[in-house]
Specification:
13 helices; mainly alpha; single chain; 241 residues; 68% helix
């Protein structure tokens, strides 16, 4: 079952509190009589919470520059494998989040608490927000401030924020050391160790095992490509074998 069907079909069985639980509760109320019976397991609830978090934070970020662009909505639907049958349902969550008075900080704090011992999951969530913010090719200053605030709530340092940004948005001109979160004065051994650590932590299979729904792995795959390219550049400059 896809994550979208899990959310719609099992919302009533997910025992969640906080603002994410409120959204799930509203969805369950909308589909009363249609939802799955019984409790939904912890793993499914975590994946659903991650997904709700992405949708809600995306909606609130889209409003940060004063308008929700069609590009931002379209890139969400296309990148995260929303099947045609669930587009309206995902749109409904998106609209609920735009209208809901609770600020994005409360959602970010709940996600930070849920995944505090899995920082790679929070990194992936922030990466997805970068991906959506850049849908129209430009990250608005208000969106950048939004992303910085979420990163702070997730307990990421400014250096980590820059690394995540470059891993997602990296171009041919990007500093490969920034993409790896490395320094030019590090030894070859340290660079190689850091590279291997990043590849291991952000491998799609590991992220799925830690709670990231498979529908959201596209961004992780693109990040790995940027990380590999950055390491290859450094290896070539240094002559690392």
């Amino acid at each position: 079952m896809s994550i979208w069907s899990t959310i719609i079909g099992g919302a009533a069985g997910m025992a969640m509190g906080g603002p994410i639980g409120a959204i799930l509760g509203a969805m369950a109320g909308h589909y009363v009589g249609k939802q799955a019976k019984g409790k939904v397991g912890g793993e499914a609830t975590e994946r659903a919470s991650f997904t709700i978090g992405v949708i809600v934070l995306s909606a609130k970020m889209a409003k940060a520059d004063g308008q929700v662009s069609r590009d931002e909505i379209n890139v969400f639907r296309q990148a995260f494998q929303v099947p045609p049958s669930e587009v309206k349902n995902v749109g409904r969550i998106f609209d609920m989040a735009k209208k809901e008075a609770t600020g994005y900080e409360a959602y970010a704090r709940q996600l930070a608490s849920m995944f505090h011992n899995r920082p790679a999951v929070l990194e992936e969530l922030l990466s997805i927000l970068f991906y959506i913010a850049n849908a129209d090719g430009v990250i608005h200053p208000a969106e950048k401030k939004f992303l910085e605030d979420v990163a702070l709530i997730f307990n990421f340092s400014p250096d980590t924020f820059e690394r995540i940004k470059e891993e997602v948005l990296g171009s041919a001109e990007s500093d490969p050391y920034t993409i790896l979160g490395a320094r030019a004065d590090m030894s070859d051994k340290e660079i190689k160790s850091l590279y291997r650590k990043l590849i291991k932590e952000h491998h799609p299979d590991r992220l799925v095992a830690e709670g990231v729904p498979e529908e959201f792995i596209k961004v992780a795959t693109e990040k790995l490509a940027h990380i590999n390219t950055a390491y290859d550049k450094i290896a070539k400059m240094r002559g690392i074998k």
